Amino acid sequence: MNCDKIQDRFADYLTGDVDEASRRDVQGHIVACAACREEIENLTAVWAKLGVLPEEQPSGALRHRFYAMLETSKNEMAAAEKRPARAHFLSGFGEWFSFRRPAFAASFSAFLLLLGIGTGWLVSGSGGKSARLSSLQREVQDMRQTVAVSLLSLPAASQRLQGISYTAAVQNPSAKTLTALVNTLNTDPNPNVRLAAVEALYLFRNQPGVRDSLIDSLAVQDSALVQVALIDLLVEIREQRASEALKALIKTEKLNPDVKKLAEQGIKQLI
Amino acid sequence: MDDENSNGEKTGRMPPTDNELMELVRDGKVEKLAILFERHQTMLYNFFLRLTGNRAASEDLVQEVFIRILKYRAGYQGENRFVVWVFQIARNAHVDFLRKKKGEVALDDQFAEAPSQEPLPEERFEADQEAVLVRRALDKLPPKKRELLVLFRFQNLKLREIAELLDVQVGTVKVQVHRALKDLSRIYLELQGGKAS
Fold it and tell me: Do B42 and A45 lie within an 8 Å CB cutoff?
């Protein structure tokens, strides 16, 4: 074996993908050839060093974005299947159903409006189409939720506010929609968006887990405005379990005095 | 909505292979893409991270790959391993990314910082320093050689699969791997302040 052949074998040698004869050939050569020996030592060392590069984990935001995208695709496919007669109308749907399109939100609103008008027409028109109607209504609801959840993950506060207003029109929010709203309430950088989330969650106060989330959120909020809105809400819905959270809030350092006062009043009202 | 969530297909004892899942996705069960995403997002993210040195861009690229998988699902043949097909898509997405970003400087500073904020234990310090040096050496390789090494070293692709991906002969891949490693070794030693061989 000559030095050139070593080059051909080296990649296999590294992966261990060589038969015994080849391995003996390579070893036989490097015993005799100091240059190849040194080279193989260097390359094996750098090969091993590449192994110290750590594997990193992508952030949760990637997962969030992926599922929003998948949800959108699923819904559009389901919509296309449910109404084969309108397949031609929906075929271009996926093309414009993209949040990267600036005009998306506006055109989607128009779409919902049309769907709403259609629903109204069906209601007034014929009573025998109730099955179709309920499926259409459900579709509108599902769409709205998909859009809302996706809007909530967008960078512009105005879009997230729009997402919240979409959820407000939903009758039976999915767990996913509720989670997105609670996440917005707890993590959105913009206090106005968080305030809007409080109001939307008020509408869903009887859904499972929402009250607990609202109570837990007290400990997370740093804006006095949002704290006040949460306290008002919890007092209004007579959520007695909030007392403990309010007591904890009062003990918080640097708490706004007005918020403190309101929390103290709240505790009295909840007893 | 409930009827859309049902999983009609039978579940075998073995977890479904990537190919089986992708065939289901192709045939309309797009929700199965979630399993493929969970299986491969980290691997793809690290592939892009090693190529671009940019975390945000790497996440964008992973998302782009899955968007393209859905878009081109009808063309999935299942002849090769699923990951080979995915890497074809990933490489195209990366080329498009480079085209868009042409002129911008790579943010290799991101790698100067440790991935976690907590202080490093002493025994990890040395390994971490070495990782920074290896990372810099890799960044200094020409993009094609870097890609080849990343595919070969980290992505568990066989030489035959890499050859297929790059559309060259297996022998060519072997020679290129050898040369790329030689270059990397030289750059690494230079950065280390030692003598280049």
Answer: no
Task: Report the topology of domain B122-197.
Answer: Arc Repressor Mutant, subunit A (1.10.10)
Summarize pLDDT for B158-189 with one digit per residue, the tens: 889 999 999 999 999 999 999 999 999 999 99
Question: Helix A224-236 vs helix A257-270: angle between axes, to the nearest 10 degrees?
Answer: 10
The B residues from 56 to 75 touching A (CB cutoff 8 Å) are 58-59, 62-63, 66-67, 70
Cα separations in angstroms, B119 against A160, A189, B110, B134: 36, 28, 17, 21
The whole-angstrom separation of Cα B12 and Cα B62 is 29
Contacts with B197 from chain A: Cβ below 8 Å: 38-39, 42
Contact B127 A142 (CB under 8 A): no
The reported pLDDT for the residue numbered A237 is 87
Kindly state whether A78 is in contact with chain B, defined as any CB-CB distance less than 8 angstroms: yes
Choices 3.30.420.40, 1.50.10.20, 3.40.50.1820, 1.10.1740.10: CATH for B16-104:
1.10.1740.10
| Residue in chain A nearest B68 by alpha carbon | A69
CB contact under 8 A, A55 and B46: yes
